[in-house]
Design brief:
- The structure is a single chain.
- Helix content is about 45%, strand content about 20%.
- By secondary structure, it is an alpha+beta fold.
- A hairpin with an 8-residue loop joins strand 6 and strand 7.
- The longest helix is centred in the first third of the chain and has 28 residues, at about 75-105.
- It is elongated and about 85 Å long.
- The chain starts with 6 loop residues before the first helix and ends in a 6-residue tail after the last strand.
Length: about 500
């Protein structure tokens, strides 16, 4: 049973925190005076709004709905903002409810002075200090703002209104709300220290160079994959921002021919689509020695995001300023092109990885890309058939062999982000075959860093050779799947491609 604390008890807490006695007494009196002032004042339009807003934030429901709306917007930045907001909220709520409220057992305000129409239908039974609603609101709003200032500006007034509603309805004293909001914002900043925002990470893809500046898009030819998730919307933005650019829309079947034709008469080749589309354009641009402008229009857009290109507007600004970087191309032989080589910007994989891509592509038209990815991962994790091959002359049973173009973060099971797109190295990872290799990998990833797990091996290489591959062995690269047999050699074409990106010439 939580007992009520009086003014002297609150003053004792403040004195324990080092506040002088006279100052503590003044703060407590001021806190209660402000509460009574709010209760006694008429706020036009607030009576029907603020109590409902306060109730909508119970258990974080308001913020989860907002996060879901952001995640469904189609913007990668909005999805990251939603994820960071929810993560910050979860940590803040756990800290407040397990530590904060038990440290200072302050009773709720007496409601005699609060009009009945404002009071909550169900009064809270927990202690008053600090305000959990205010902490959650501030944590969510701050987390969102750290990823997207624009979305943060939209969420902030709502968060402030939720915090104010806690005093307005008589659920909290003003000091409860202020301290709760400060703690929530602090938690969001602490989460950023553990998981930096994309803007806080260094711009990848060094070394930099000055590329042709194309104000208005003169000399730019952009090939758009009509089938890509958001390519048409990105193409419309390019038309508005770069009216002098030549834009060609085509179906996936005609993509290679369209790229080869577009590169003949342009200074810069542009491409709008997902990673598979960008892969084809990168090979053409590198072969003809022209810079590449990437307008992300797919579902995941790994290469563009690692490059620092969030959306088509970033690329338009880089083109106008002539900002670009040189990046590496991963190369594999034999490959599907006429010269015997294949290229990859992100990843290449054998074993379970091509199967995951194949299953995902099968389900994506029916259930959407994200759910298709989850279904594919669940099905692949149950697969036990290893790939038998010689890796650098040694016969192995391999469940998954992965090669990344440049080094990815090593702390997670899946490749997430690269900080340098021109490091000249291959990020090679192997998951050994055996009983339930997918399950063992999942358990190892949950238990700690994969670098310490015997299930998983990782190496930084300049060249990888795999032989003894059976006919029809599947190989996946940048979301595309092909079949190979015999021997496979993977290496790098260092700094082979010039790509526009914001801030590239700083």
């Amino acid at each position: 049973m939580i007992g009520r604390t009086g003014p002297r008890d609150e003053e004792a807490v403040l004195r324990a925190l080092g506040v002088p006695a006279a100052r503590a007494e003044w703060l407590v009196a001021k806190d209660r005076a402000i509460f009574l002032g709010v209760a006694g004042r008429h706020w036009p339009g607030a009576d029907p709004l603020l109590p409902r807003l306060s109730r909508s934030a119970n258990h974080g429901v308001l913020w989860f709905v907002a996060a879901a709306a952001m995640a469904c917007s189609g913007s990668a930045r909005a999805r990251r903002a939603a994820a960071r907001g929810v993560a910050s909220l979860a940590v803040a709520s756990a800290a407040i409810n397990t530590v904060g409220k038990r440290s200072v057992r302050r009773a709720r305000p007496v409601l005699d002075a609060v009009p009945v129409i404002r009071q909550l239908k169900r009064q809270p039974i927990t202690t008053s200090f600090p305000s959990g609603h205010s902490a959650s609101a501030a944590a969510f709003a701050t987390g969102v703002a750290l990823e997207s200032p624009v979305l943060g500006a939209v969420v902030a007034p709502v968060a402030a209104a939720v915090a104010a509603s806690r005093v307005y309805t008589g659920a909290h004293y003003p000091s409860d709300v202020l301290v709760g909001a400060a703690l929530g914002a602090g938690v969001a900043l602490a989460v950023r220290l553990l998981v930096p925002t994309r803007a806080a990470l260094p711009v990848p893809g060094r070394p930099h160079l000055d590329a042709p500046a194309l104000p208005g898009g003169r000399g730019l030819a952009v090939v758009v994959n009509r089938a890509a998730a958001s390519a048409r919307a990105a193409a419309d933005l390019v038309r508005d921002a770069l009216p002098l650019a030549e834009i060609v829309e085509c179906d996936p079947e005609g993509l290679t021919a369209a790229l080869e034709e577009a590169v003949q008469g342009c200074r810069v080749l542009g491409v709008c689509g997902g990673d598979g589309t960008v892969n084809g354009a990168a090979a053409v641009a590198a072969r003809h020695g022209v810079p590449l402008a990437v307008f992300p229009g797919g579902t995941l857009n790994h290469f563009a995001y690692d490059l620092g290109v969030e959306d088509a507007q970033d690329t338009c600004r880089a083109l106008a300023a002539g900002d670009a970087v040189r990046v590496d191309l991963g190369r594999f032989t034999p490959g599907p092109s006429s010269d015997g080589h294949g290229y990859f910007l992100n990843t290449l994989g054998l074993g379970a990885y091509p199967e995951l891509v194949r299953i995902r592509e099968h389900w994506a038209p029916r259930v959407g890309d994200w759910l298709a990815g989850v279904l594919a991962a669940l099905e692949v994790l149950r697969e036990e058939r290893p790939l038998e091959a010689c890796v650098h002359g040694r016969r192995r049973a391999v469940w998954l062999l992965f090669a990344g173009n440049c080094l990815y973060q090593r702390s997670t099971a899946a490749p997430t982000r690269r900080h340098d797109l021109a490091d000249g190295q291959l990020d090679v990872r192997v998951v050994h075959g055996g009983r339930a290799p997918g399950l063992r990998l999942l358990v190892a990833a949950l238990a700690g860093p994969l670098t310490r797990s015997p299930v998983h091996a990782a190496a930084r290489l300049l060249r990888l050779r795999v032989s003894g591959l059976a006919p029809g062995t599947l190989l996946a690269y940048d979301g595309e799947v092909t079949s190979i047999s015999g021997e496979l050699t993977v290496d790098k074409a260092a700094e082979a491609l010039t790509v526009y990106c914001p801030g590239g010439s700083r």
